[in-house]
Specification:
Elements: H1 6-18, H2 23-41, E1 49-54, H3 58-74, E2 78-83, H4 92-103, E3 108-109, E4 121-125, H5 137-148, E5 154-158, E6 180-184, H6 189-192, E7 202-206, E8 220-222, E9 246-250, H7 257-270, E10 274-279, H8 284-290, E11 295-298, H9 303-307, E12 312-315, H10 323-335, E13 340-342, E14 361-363, H11 367-374, H12 378-383, H13 385-396, E15 399-402, E16 408-410, E17 416-418, H14 431-445, H15 450-472, H16 479-497
Parallel strand pairs: 1-2, 1-4, 2-3, 4-5, 5-6, 6-7, 8-17, 9-10, 9-12, 10-11, 12-13, 13-14, 14-15
Antiparallel strand pairs: 15-16, 16-17
Helix pairs in contact: 2-3, 3-4, 7-8, 7-14, 7-16, 14-15, 14-16, 15-16
């Protein structure tokens, strides 16, 4: 699903108008999408007490359409339409919709009546995506009313919660609370990036008539199961362990054998046919005790023979640090053409450029590791996760998975996908090792679809964490629980793709 900035949205609206769909039609459609949502979630609307708060811009015009449709189609138990502006301040399509609302006999208040405080639903149509800087004056007062003046109400934001910037995840001032947000055409960047993504409630996208081809080339997308649905289809009846790839995991040490085991198990549970773990000889008995399905090989004998015939190499978790490890990683990158997933201790190497070769290299740093790779501070990385990931991926010709809230996947051609799944419960030792294994496992099965393999692993990893946290609690989830709930996550995604 494409994600747009405010400027891109304005350009889409402009080009839509050039194609013969005027703004007033788009505004009517936008209001209709909001009313459809209200009717679906809060039926019967005739029994509801509703307040619609409108500003003077196009977002307020959308709200006036919502009010007119509620008044003429559903006759709620109580409907209070509040315009926090003088009618003469309205312009263009918003002014036209005000006149249509008045013609229907629906009263419009300039202040919030006392009886409106008991509303069950508040529609926030004060400020839209055109805001620059923090809300002030009467709009700020309106935002504060939404946040504290309606104790019984659910809040439905029109397009974007008032006061929230549309292009940035960082707040710039006070914003209205929202239980639901009905946005139009596509999500906006500020709605899908942290921390603002936590303030939109349930995000619903309503299509209002802009042709998708007008924004199909946008490089930022929100990941959804349909983007990797082919990878979850039933396997062919004649498939066998050799059909689904062989992952080589180069990981672990005497002190961190669990990291190697979790990486290997992640690859197996994601569906790889075979997994071999190459680790220090002293760690192999411990690794084998974790899962008899894992094959093992002593790392001391060298990777040349071990890597032969392997589909994917996953490298780094628990491997240790030092000149010997750096040399091992550098040799592996230079000598082997298989797709590689590099994490943890394999990210300490300096030769991060892919030299324009067609080899698939997937890096999975957390923000601290990303800071070391780029020479920036962790704060700098976190302040622009999308920009940092995209710049690194395009410059070094690698696929980068920047872990954290709303994990960012950046590709060598400049595309960026943002993952909406995940939970603070994943902030536990070993969860990144499981993700490395899952990426390798999907890549082993689908070497011709590397982007979708990464997407499937990242999305399902986050979703399995969410499911596990619901069952066990955020504090009690441990890394291997991700594997326990992965089948349920796969089933849920397959159902979504099938339209169930």
């Amino acid at each position: 699903m494409k994600v747009l900035t405010a400027a891109q949205m304005r350009e889409v609206d402009r080009r839509t108008a050039e194609m013969g769909i005027p703004g007033i039609v788009l505004m009517e459609n936008a209001g209709h999408r909001v009313v459809e949502f209200l009717a679906e979630r809060f039926a019967p609307l005739s029994a509801q007490r509703i307040v619609v708060l409108c500003g003077k811009g196009n977002n307020g015009g959308d709200g006036l359409v919502v009010a007119r449709q509620l008044h003429t189609r559903f006759t709620p138990q109580a409907l209070h339409v509040v315009l926090l502006a003088a009618p003469e301040e309205l312009k263009g399509d918003a002014a036209a919709n005000y006149r249509m609302l008045a013609a229907c006999g629906c009263p419009v208040w300039r202040e919030i009546p006392a009886e409106a405080r008991l509303a069950a639903l508040v529609v926030d149509a004060l400020l839209g995506t055109g805001i620059s800087g923090p809300a002030t004056g009467v709009m700020l007062e309106g935002i504060r009313e939404i946040n504290g003046g309606f104790p019984l109400a659910r809040v439905v934001a029109v397009d974007i919660p008032s006061g929230m910037p549309s292009d940035s995840g960082e707040p710039v001032g006070e914003r209205a609370r929202a239980d639901y947000t009905v946005t139009f055409t596509a999500p906006k960047a500020g709605q899908v990036l942290p921390p603002n993504c936590d303030g939109v409630g349930e995000l619903v996208v309503g299509h209002i008539g802009s042709p998708p081809e007008l924004y199909e080339d946008v490089w930022l997308s929100l990941l959804e199961p349909e983007m990797f649905e082919e990878l979850l289809e039933p396997r062919p009846p004649g498939g066998h362990k050799g059909t689904f790839g062989h992952v080589l995991v180069v990981a672990g040490s005497r002190e961190k054998s669990g990291a190697a085991a979790m990486t290997g198990l992640g690859a197996l549970r994601a569906g790889a046919g075979l997994v071999t773990v190459a680790s220090a000889a002293s760690a192999i008995p411990i690794i084998a005790s974790h899962a008899p399905e894992l094959m093992t090989a002593p790392l001391e004998t060298g990777l040349q023979g071990i890597a032969e015939g392997k589909t994917v190499i996953a490298m780094g978790p628990g491997l240790g640090r030092g000149p010997d490890i750096e040399a091992l990683v550098a040799r592996t990158l230079a000598e082997f053409e298989q797709p590689m997933v590099l994490d943890a201790d394999a990210l300490g190497w300096q030769a991060t450029e892919n030299d324009g070769l067609p080899h698939i290299r997937i890096l999975t740093p957390h923000p601290g590791e990303m800071a070391r790779l780029t020479g920036k501070t962790t704060t700098e990385i976190q302040s622009d996760r999308v920009g940092a990931a995209r710049a690194f991926a395009t410059e070094r010709r690698v696929t980068l998975v920047l872990k954290g809230q709303r994990t960012v996947m950046a590709f060598p051609d400049g595309r960026v996908w943002i993952n909406p799944t995940g939970t603070p419960a994943l902030g536990t030792g070993g969860s990144g090792d499981v993700l490395t294994g899952m990426i390798a496992g999907f890549l082993a099965q689908f070497p011709g679809q590397p982007d979708q393999a990464v997407a499937a692993a990242v999305y399902l990893h986050g979703l399995a964490g969410e499911i596990g946290a619901r069952a066990l609690g955020e504090k009690c989830l441990i890394a291997t629980d991700i594997l326990r709930y992965l089948p349920e996550a796969m089933e849920e995604c397959a159902d979504v793709s099938d339209g169930v």
